[in-house]
Amino acid sequence: MANVSVAAEWQLLSNRFYRKLEIYQMRWKHVDLSRNKVACAPFGGPIAIIRDDSKIVQLYSESALRKLRIFNSAGVLISETIWKHPGGRLIGMSWTDDQTLICIVQDGTIYRYNINAECLEPNYSMGKECFEQNVVDCVFWGNGVVCLTEAGKLFCVADFKDIKPYKLADPIIRMEEELPHCMAVIEPQYTVSGNVVVLLGVGDGIVTVDDDDVRQVESDDLRGPVQKLAVSHNGRILARFTHDGYLVMSNMQFDTIFEYQCESDLPPEQMAWCGLDSVLLYRDDMLLVVGPSEYCISYIYDEPVILIPECDGVRILSNSTLEFLQRVPDSTESIFKIGSTSPASLLVDALDHFDRRSAKADENLRLIRTSLPEAVEACVDAAGHEFDVSRQRTLLRAASYGQAFFGFGSNFQRDCIQEMCKTLRVLNAVRDFVIGVPLSIQQYKSLTAPVLIGRLINAHQHLLALRLSEYLGIIKASRKQEIDNEKRELKICKGISYAAVAAHADKSGRRKLAAMLVEYESRSSKQRPALEFFGTIQARSFARDLFITYARSYKHEFLKDFFLSTGQLQDVAFLLWKESWELGKNPMASKGSPLHGPRIKLIEKAQNLFSETKEHTFESKAAEEHAKLLRIQHELEVSTKQAIFVDSSISDTIRTCIVLGNHRAAMKVKTEFKVSEKRWYWLKVFALATIRDWDALEKFSKEKRPPIGYRPFVEACIDADEKGEALKYIPKLGDPRERAEAYARIGMAKEAADAASQAKDGELLGRLKLSFAQNTAASSIFDTLRDRLSFQGVS
């Protein structure tokens, strides 16, 4: 049913599904997009709104002075300012890649704003000709713009980081009668020359203009006049809307790829690409999704909308909502498509049955046993494409559930689930309406984490930026390198006193630098002022919290001294434990490295500190056992000369010992950590099967009656494709149903039928018949037995 509810909202276009997700209910009040000029930044960026001075609008309770307001994507106001600039009407505005708002007015003046509505100096001009002729239209791309004047001349700024306007080739000879119907640009990165190319719909044809040349497109398929143009994100496909109501898609040589006739020949108000598969047309109250099909998808809106193209879809902004329209990702379609029998779909279904304690979960897993890695990978990928947190959780749980059934030695990248969880935590944090950055996972990968963090800092979301930097390990690596460089420079000066430099830094108001320098002072007498510093900040809660956050991020020694001076022994213990893990990451910490000695000592120190408090009995016991396990693993690596034990679990340590034939060491680990008999049997059975030591396995089965029964012995042999070995244990299975299924798995139909008849289970006979569907003789045996049971009144 979950699949039905998810897929019911999809729309089919040709052989592709599309979905429209509501991301936010807009938080703003009394905003009518039809009365305003709107600029929306890509990658879930901010929205700039200002009253459109080219329209006559009714003023309600608002001031006659126009305000430039900047919102996040959820409609939360970030900043606003009064618009007082001269230069005529505002012709166009757009956001650059670094989220600077560019505003171009009628006389060609360029005004720039940051996200906090602060006007950036200096202002620039598109040039004297633009000032004299007036700008009538402009088309933006990432970091550039092309402006069209009333005289039909084109001017370009290729990069707003270095604003140098220049004039393009003069197309006036093509436009004696009227200005172009439409205009679009091919970005410099997609042209052969490396310069921008402008496409103009002029008269009945199309003209291309670059720095040096003007060309009339020669093609029989233009169907001009062209009313609207849009270039795809990769610069390879052109969509054009013609005067007779056709939407034509072509390559850049104007060879038609696909055309669609709309019901109306009125040009759309907006036209935008949705990925690389389809084009959106918006007119009046209708939004059409047109792709390579004779049909289209239509959505009705009772309020104006703005289309915001993204690399993997289109955001749709209206007065009340923000939605995201995209092609349904392949992994999502394979799971939730109605009637899907893909391995990933069956895995999600198996989890649902498992949660309901249904035996059908096991049946689903058996069906996809050989495809489990692909199913898990699809669930992880689909989770990344979801905006709904509960659905993310369900898909990741399904992936974890499937991963638990991987065979020993599987090559599946087991950390992919962890990495996806980390990515989704970042995405869910920035998608919160207070932050208002609704990134999809594809957009996040294109944008990169450092750029996202920079944008959060610019928006004054400093705490979240810091937390994400720490979580992703960005700030620690860069800051550690910076500190190491500073320390190296100070070491050049022989006999330098870090305390003296710290004192000077403190007097200069550089308190953070002073605290950092005190850490490197080796003479304790010089560090005494630092202890007085501890007493000072302990009495001030805000200063104390800032200090702890700082010291925890960059260096632990200073923080340990602080915790010891204030009696917070458990916090010191946690720091020591963390240091032991950091020491374990050292590439030299292998093959019996002496680095394991300090690691064990750090953990033992932590255990002693934990034991000082009654509230941390569990941590004390865990640290004690961790040190004991690490010591045993260190000894094993020394004796075997193989760096394969340290930091593995108790179960993995036992299993590895058995695989290497060191049964005495395995028994020692079992005794030391009081491993239960059931767990011991499970580990030894599958370890012996892994090395295919069947004699030892048989001998082990006869030592005493196995507390786990004989079913694990059977499964281990079958998984290793040793049917003959499995036959030694199948007759010992006490449950006739288990015997029947075991015989069926190794292809012995008659024996499976005999066991099933003892169970007197008609349903079991039906399932066994299906497993032997290709064997006519076997099927007839099961039919006969089922008929006999039916005659006896057994169902």
From TrEMBL:
One GO-annotated biological process of the protein: endosomal transport
Principal location: membrane
Highest classification ranks of the organism: Eukaryota, Viridiplantae, Streptophyta, Embryophyta, Tracheophyta
Similarity field: Belongs to the VPS16 family.
Membrane topology designation: Peripheral membrane protein
One Pfam entry name: Vps16_C
Protein name, as recorded: Protein VACUOLELESS1
Subcellular location(s) of the protein: Vacuole membrane
Stretches assigned to the Vps16 C-terminal domain: 532-776
Annotated ranges, domain Vps16 N-terminal: 8-406
The entry's keywords: Membrane, Vacuole
Function: Required for vacuole biogenesis and vacuole enlargment in dividing and expanding cells. Involved in the docking or fusion of prevacuolar vesicles.
Domain of life: Eukaryota
